[in-house]
């Protein structure tokens, strides 16, 4: 069993239909969660005769969905969202009845309706009596489903709960886990690429208890790191002080100052992709005090002398092991696109995501949404206001297309990908 799985950040929708093999689904949920996947479950009426919604919910750490006509289920997450938000749908065990519904477009319960509404890859792990498996009608349904693009895992041959022996036994949870891991390893568009993402603010000390910082929450940078990991990249996130959890499956390095961020970034090189989303302080205090500066009656306020911080984006763009794609951010309070285009040339990066911050329409710092314009050497592409995770997904989609085009025109692998 492959325990080092490419599942971090992936979402699997598990449909559990009726049959004694439903007990294996509990072990599969445990393995998927241990591998870093998010698992949501639909339990059919037949499935609930063999395992309980409580056990499924406890292992998946999500509510279990059972009834198409449950107003509670539909208000929390309807069948359309269930089918669309998963990266992969697995039916395990899949009864002959549910396979027949899938093959013939029947949607009379939550499981069959969700499967019919899905636009995502579907895997099926059949479990049934050998005679049921061998029936001509079942085999016709199987051929129809295969033509529709459904992937079959098993069945295996062995002793059944009914006492008969033959083909129809559901494969073990470990085999399903390995099949899912293999699917994501092959399908991930950025598998084999290494990515560096910077996020959050930097804190430049004035004295041991005071600092100069900014309002960056790190939400956008962390969302980009998570989206790159979901696309299969090996991601290192270098982040300033933020109140956010580590993205699942992402190697996270915490720093405070710009100098520390630069050192951490250079230690990650070589890599294929660098996204510099951190709001790095332009200056630091040159004469930071070793002890707390105290206010004294009648004394003049201390004078702070500033010196320029290292330019992380420019340094990475000019580095001897420069990534194939270097992306920066330009948070501006006025004329964001013009400033971003000037910054693109001055820093030597490939793309800039420009956002005009501090406005009522786009406060950006600390908010859950963002409005950006993607600026390249030859194009300007304004995006609508989106949730920051949607900005991240759209950016990663562009990155995937760029890397594909680069690979098609360059037969040699990058130093990072080859290492």
Describe this structure in words.
Helix 1 (22-34) packs parallel to helix 2, helix 5 (96-104) packs across helix 8 and helix 10 (219-230) packs across helix 14. With 419 residues, the chain is an alpha/beta fold. The strands form six sheets. Strands 13-12-9-14-17-18-20-21 form an eight-stranded mixed β-sheet, with helices on both faces. A six-stranded parallel β-sheet has the order 3-2-1-4-5-6, with helices on both faces. It starts with 10 loop residues before the first strand and ends with a helix. Strand 7 and strand 8 (165-169) form a beta hairpin. The protein has 15 helices and 22 strands. Helix content is 36%, strand content 22%. The radius of gyration is 26 Å and the shape is elongated. The protein has helices at residues 22-34, 53-60, 71-76, 79-85, 96-104, 110-117, 130-134, 136-147, 173-187, 219-230, 258-268, 312-317, 336-347, 388-409, 415-418; strands spanning 11-16, 38-43, 64-65, 88-94, 122-126, 151-152, 156-159, 165-169, 194-199, 204-207, 210-212, 234-239, 251-254, 273-276, 283-285, 306-308, 325-332, 351-356, 369-370, 373-375, 380-382, 386-387. The chain folds into two domains: 11-187, 3-Layer(aba) Sandwich (Rossmann fold); 194-418, Rossmann fold, CATH 3.40.50.
CATH architecture of the largest domain: 3-Layer(aba) Sandwich
| Count of helix runs | 15
**Strand sequence of the main sheet, in spatial order?**
13-12-9-14-17-18-20-21
Quaternary organisation of the protein chains: single chain
As a whole number of angstroms, the C-alpha radius of gyration is 26 Å
- Termini separation comes to 26 Å
Helix content: 25-40%
**What's the average pLDDT?**
88
Total number of strands = 22
How many discrete structural domains?
A: 2
Shape: elongated
CATH superfamily of the largest domain: CoaB-like
Strand content of the residues, in percent?
15-25%
Largest sheet properties? 8 strands, mixed
**What structural class do helix, strand and pairing data support?**
alpha/beta
CATH topology of the largest domain: Rossmann fold
Poorly predicted runs are 1-5
CATH class value of the largest domain = Alpha Beta
């Amino acid at each position: 069993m492959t325990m080092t799985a490419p599942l971090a950040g992936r979402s699997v929708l598990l449909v559990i239909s009726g049959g004694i093999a439903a007990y294996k689904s509990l072990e599969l949920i445990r393995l998927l969660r241990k591998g870093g996947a998010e698992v949501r479950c639909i339990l059919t009426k037949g499935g609930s005769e063999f395992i309980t919604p409580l056990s499924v919910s406890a292992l998946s750490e999500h509510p279990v969905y059972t009834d198409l006509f449950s107003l509670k289920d539909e208000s929390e997450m309807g069948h359309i969202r269930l089918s669309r938000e998963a990266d992969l749908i697995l039916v395990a065990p899949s009864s002959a009845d549910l396979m027949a519904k899938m093959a013939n477009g029947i949607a009379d319960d939550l499981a069959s309706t969700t499967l019919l509404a899905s636009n995502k890859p579907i895997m099926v792990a059949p479990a049934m009596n050998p005679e049921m498996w061998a029936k001509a009608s079942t085999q016709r349904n199987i051929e129809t489903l295969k033509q529709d693009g459904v992937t079959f895992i098993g069945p295996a041959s062995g002793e059944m709960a009914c006492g008969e022996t033959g083909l129809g036994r559901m494969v073990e949870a470990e085999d399903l886990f390995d099949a899912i891991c293999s699917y994501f390893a092959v399908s991930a568009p950025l598998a084999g690429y290494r990515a560096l993402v910077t996020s959050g603010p930097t804190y430049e000390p004035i004295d041991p208890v005071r600092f100069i910082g900014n309002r960056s929450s790190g939400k956008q940078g962390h969302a980009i790191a998570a989206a790159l990991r979901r696309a299969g990249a090996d991601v290192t996130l270098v982040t300033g002080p933020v109140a956010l959890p580590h993205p699942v499956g992402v190697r996270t390095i915490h720093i405070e100052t710009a100098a520390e961020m630069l050192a951490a970034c250079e230690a990650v090189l070589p890599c294929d992709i660098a996204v510099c989303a951190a709001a790095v302080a332009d200056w630091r205090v040159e004469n930071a005090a070793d002890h707390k500066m105290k206010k004294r009656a009648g004394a003049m306020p201390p004078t702070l002398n500033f010196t320029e911080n290292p330019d992380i984006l420019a340094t990475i763009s000019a580095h001897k092991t420069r990534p194939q794609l270097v992306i920066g951010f330009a948070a501006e309070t006025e004329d964001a696109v013009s400033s971003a285009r000037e910054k693109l040339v001055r820093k030597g990066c490939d793309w800039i995501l420009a956002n005009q911050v501090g406005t009522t329409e786009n406060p950006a710092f600390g908010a859950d949404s963002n409005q950006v314009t993607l600026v390249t050497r030859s194009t300007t592409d304004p995006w609508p206001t989106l949730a920051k995770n949607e900005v991240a997904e759209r950016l990663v989609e562009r990155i995937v297309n760029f890397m594909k085009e680069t690979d098609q025109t360059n037969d040699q692998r990058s130093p990072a990908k080859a290492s």
